[in-house]
Amino acid sequence: MAALDLFFTFQFLKRLTTPFDKTDAFKQGVIDKDGKLLKSPKSAEEKAAYSSFDRLVFNLKRLLGKLPGGKSRLASYAAALLLLREEDKHLTSDGKYVIINYTDETLKAMLRENMDILKRNSAPEMLNEDAAANAAGGGAVAGIGVGQDGEPGVRLNKRRKRRKNDPRLALKTLRRAVANVHEERRLQEGGLTIFDIDDTLLQTFAEIKVVKKGKVIKSITGTQYNDYKLKRGESFDFSEFRNSRHFYDTSRPIGRMMGTAKAILKNIKKKRGSRVIILTARADFDNKELFLATFRKFGLDIDIIYVERSGNLGQGNPASQKKTIIKRYLNSNKYSRMRLFDDSKANIDMFVGLKKEYPDIDFQGYLVKHGGRTTKVTG
Fold first, then answer.
1. Fold annotation for 191-205+252-378
2. With a threshold of 0.85, does the pTM exceed it?
3. Does 145 or 79 have the greater pLDDT score?
């Protein structure tokens, strides 16, 4: 994730230090020279120039502009200091990275130091861009002066002035803003959404045969299979679950879950790195194209969804098989959050339990019940 963090930090600081009138959003007429929104972006070019990330940085930039010296490069330096708290890494002589954690007091001192440096080296008009607009001279005019009507001795304005210039408040404001930026980054990092098939996306009617001594002794549904424990001498016959013609002819969509899947697919097309997969306990079908045609029949864009078939693993129960495949995606380090829609409680419990092994990942499990209703379970 270090490369992604470095890229994000660079993009954030680059946008923060670019004048509004030099941005693509200004050139497209979306914002004015002060960063204020002039119109809602409609064309593809306007939306690209004013993304949610741009909007967040622009709002932060305008917020920083209200701080002392904010319209100079002070705002950028102060924000960079806060980002350093999260991102600063030093390479040691033995080739290892050491993360530098700054305390609040250290950050305050650095913030004050940067304020002093900028005040000494910046032009007065840069540090006081609002002065001309707000200046009214030094005469004894009613309403202008120290007090409410120009009288001396009222301390309210002085208190406000000290409060406005207090680095601790500047730090607090910046911390909130940068926290929002980090949350935006998290949302822009890859997310993986996983759907089961049977009794999740589709109501299916294939049955698994329980065989003993060459004879079928019972038939069970996919849901029953999740919890069924073979007795001595028993084995499963999955032939009906591999029959693509039976799957195509008998499957029925679960409307609520199909709607959820379509909405998520539409949304992730706008997000770099996010993905949707299907993870089924079934093994390979006898006709791949007929199997995929079932989803197309119900309007699901299966051509951008990879179908993982844990039944091909052969060993272990359905939950352990699915766990093996999910961990493969986790170990790719491409995803900061994952969610699973599955009708099996055992699978959901396994999934959210992965939080212990991967504490930095956001796990959200959705237990699918009759009619496509879901119960959220988090790790």
1. Rossmann fold (3.40.50)
2. no
3. 79
